[in-house]
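Lecture notes, part 5. Sequence design as translation. It can be helpful to think of inverse folding as translation between two languages: the language of shapes and the language of residues. The source text, in structure tokens, appears below.
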């Protein structure tokens, strides 16, 4: 037998002779039991105390022009970069939609709160026989001191509470011909159901809002659809809530009875000053000047209250709504959206798209020892007749 390793053997069977043994060649490295080959091109370690010289580096070849070609680097080996996460296109849209939804719910909730807290009274008479086109509001400013402390009454010179009377009476008509605001002097001498004839504001003292509305309907021929009443306290609170109202005062007025001492010129009126300004009679025109000031100031107040600077400012709209709902009185059928419609109509008057006037006056006689106001019947009938048909009143029918 040969002394070399012959590999594993297998018995000879039907399959024929065993396959030849594959021997490892010299190019495949040493075999088992053979000495390892020495590593080549490995410099010997330097003598003790000396450093090994730096390895030679290869120099990039240059072009005939002397420039070296740009170095080429192999891409780093490793995991491929992760693809950028795609943005969700609808994320901002959903956020904006959620914000608008929350804002809308807050507005609706605040509106419901105001509507629930409105003071209501059965003002519109159920047996009214008057008919007219368009929408008519009766706006009343009473001398109620509700909401004012004793100190405030003294400061505002309102006097004690001597019973509710109407200090201001206005009729607002709104229809296809545009808004028309008519001031009715409180000393107007008219028939009062069950009480003969007298000053129109006496009807409120006799029978409250219902008798006042009946008296106005009988005198004008117009059907009253809505009613709104505000006292001294609500007026002052509303003016202060909007941050004051800008007015141009034509002349200086000093009236201790109204607690007013104001100079001429354009200025901002706070609640107390505004109350004295709309109450005073200390001018040459007396009550006629007063109703004109009331009409102008109310239009300016509502114009500011319905401006975006107020409606979009929670620090103004919340105090304004609270002040108004606590002291304003409406008919039992009226709601907050009816007041919003009233505000828009008044804004139209102040913006120049409507008409502001006073009932035409025929004279100021003294009856029963009191000075009263008689209407010019012909011009008054022309004014209210046009409004009943929802038409623009003729200029000849307008009062002072």
């Amino acid at each position: 037998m040969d002394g070399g390793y012959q590999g594993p053997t297998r018995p000879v069977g039907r399959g024929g002779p065993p396959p030849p043994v594959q021997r490892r060649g010299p190019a495949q490295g040493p075999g088992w039991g053979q000495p390892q080959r020495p590593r080549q091109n490995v410099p010997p370690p330097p003598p003790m105390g000396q450093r090994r010289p730096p390895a030679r580096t290869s120099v990039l070849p240059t072009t005939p022009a002397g420039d070296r070609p740009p170095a080429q680097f192999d891409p780093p080996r490793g995991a491929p970069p992760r693809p950028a996460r795609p943005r969700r296109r609808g994320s901002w849209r959903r956020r904006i939609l959620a914000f608008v939804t929350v804002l809308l719910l807050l507005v609706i909730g605040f509106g419901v709160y105001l509507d629930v807290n409105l003071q209501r009274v059965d003002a519109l008479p159920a047996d009214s026989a008057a008919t007219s086109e368009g929408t008519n509001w009766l706006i009343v400013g009473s001398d109620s001191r509700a909401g004012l402390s004793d100190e405030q009454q003294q400061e505002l010179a309102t006097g004690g509470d001597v019973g509710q009377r109407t200090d201001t009476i206005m009729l607002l008509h709104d229809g296809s011909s545009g808004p028309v605001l008519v001031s009715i002097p409180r000393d107007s001498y008219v028939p009062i159901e069950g009480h003969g004839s007298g000053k129109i504001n006496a009807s409120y003292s006799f029978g409250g809002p219902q008798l006042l509305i009946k008296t106005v309907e009988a005198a004008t021929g117009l059907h009253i659809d809505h009613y709104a009443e505000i006292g001294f306290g609500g007026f002052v609170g509303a003016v202060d809530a909007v941050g004051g109202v800008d007015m141009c005062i034509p002349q200086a007025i000093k009236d201790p009875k109204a607690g007013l001492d104001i100079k001429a010129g354009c200025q901002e009126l706070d609640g107390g000053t505004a109350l004295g300004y709309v109450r005073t009679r200390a001018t040459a025109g007396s009550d006629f000047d007063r109703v004109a000031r009331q009409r102008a100031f109310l239009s300016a107040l509502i114009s500011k209250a319905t401006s975006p600077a107020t409606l979009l400012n929670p620090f103004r709209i919340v105090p304004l709504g609270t002040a108004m709902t606590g002291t304003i009185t409406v008919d039992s059928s009226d709601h907050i959206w009816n007041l919003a419609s009233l505000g828009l109509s008044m804004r139209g008057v102040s913006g120049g798209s409507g008409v502001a006037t006073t009932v035409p006056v025929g004279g100021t006689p003294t009856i029963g020892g009191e000075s009263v106001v008689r209407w010019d019947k012909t011009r008054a009938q022309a004014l209210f007749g046009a409004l009943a048909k929802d038409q623009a009143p003729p200029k000849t029918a307008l009062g002072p």
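The translated text above is only one of many valid answers, since several sequences can fold into similar shapes. Residues 1-5 have pLDDT under 50 and may be disordered.
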